[in-house]
Write a sequence for this structure.
């Protein structure tokens, strides 16, 4: 059975309280105090829902070693949530003393891989639970890339044992923007390592696909999710919405569309 | 203890810093990058910053 959930944001907490079936959640870790959680989030944890701390600031693909204070903060949240793992990204967010606030792609070269692997191992040493990393969407590529995304992620998983958070919208975005069918990526990724899945919306603008996470999900993202369900049983699927929250009906319709792909009505009846 | 990756970290850090400088200052893309894609990414960053301020 695939579990269904939502990325926790204060704007959509109300929906979670009326939908106990949405029992697999993640929440941006930065800025959260494990001893002073917002009341709605504390309640969801107390109800026993799975809540994954989702980091955006470790910059594991960066040239610097991950900061101990950031790792400790993630570790405390994982303990507070009794989370089965912690998630982060295959990306860097700062360099040369500049914070970009954006998940930038790692150079897929042997040096890029060696530094990332070392940073991931350092994180794994400190974290009390396994680490799971998300594929990011990127418009640009490094001139020094010597591996494609699937090869790079496979090497990362093999060398570190890290799990994957597969964002099918990001996979779709990269397929669109770098002119590769999404099937080619899914066929070659180490899908056995997938611990959960993100789905989010985006928009086409100036000839490029942008993963805004602020538009409703649509056929292409659902198709990518469908392709994934044909390949592996999915542990959990999370709808990630960062902004432009629509009406309750609109959000519920998106969740229903996801449920329809991961657990079509006939299989739900059969297992009932 | 010295980090065996020190040298690679330094080189990678310089390359990442050059890319980030181009993205935040809208200066020309470092050599080898597709200038149009660097510009598009810089615009993405700016939209994101504006979105955050608007909140």
């Amino acid at each position: 059975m695939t579990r269904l959930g939502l990325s926790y944001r204060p704007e959509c907490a109300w929906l979670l309280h009326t939908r106990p079936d949405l029992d697999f959640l993640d929440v941006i870790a930065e800025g959260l105090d494990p001893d002073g959680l917002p009341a709605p989030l504390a309640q969801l944890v107390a109800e026993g829902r799975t809540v994954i701390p989702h980091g955006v600031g470790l910059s594991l693909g960066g040239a610097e070693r991950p900061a101990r204070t950031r790792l400790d903060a993630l570790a405390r949240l994982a303990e507070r949530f009794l989370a089965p793992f912690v998630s982060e990204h295959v990306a860097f967010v700062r360099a040369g003393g500049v914070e970009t606030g954006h998940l930038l792609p790692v150079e897929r070269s042997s040096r890029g891989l060696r530094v990332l692997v070392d940073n991931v191992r350092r994180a794994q040493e400190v974290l009390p639970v396994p680490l799971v990393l998300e594929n990011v969407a990127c418009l640009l590529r490094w001139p020094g890339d010597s591996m494609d995304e699937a090869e790079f992620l496979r090497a990362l998983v093999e060398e570190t044992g890290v799990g994957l958070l597969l964002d099918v919208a990001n996979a779709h975005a990269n397929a669109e923007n770098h002119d590769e069918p999404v099937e080619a990526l899914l066929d070659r990724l180490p899908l056995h390592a997938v611990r959960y899945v993100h789905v989010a919306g985006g928009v086409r603008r100036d000839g490029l696909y942008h993963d805004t996470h602020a538009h409703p999900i649509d056929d292409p993202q659902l198709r990518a999710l469908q392709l994934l369900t044909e390949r592996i049983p999915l542990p959990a699927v999370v709808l990630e919405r960062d902004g432009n929250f629509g009406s309750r009906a609109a959000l519920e319709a998106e969740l229903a569309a996801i449920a329809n792909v991961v657990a079509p009505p006939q299989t739900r009846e059969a297992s009932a | 203890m010295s980090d065996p990756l020190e040298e690679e970290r330094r080189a990678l850090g310089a390359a990442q810093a050059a890319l980030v400088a181009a993205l935040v200052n809208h200066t020309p893309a470092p050599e080898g990058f597709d200038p149009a894609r660097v510009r598009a990414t810089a615009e993405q960053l700016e939209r994101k910053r504006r979105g955050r301020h608007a909140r």
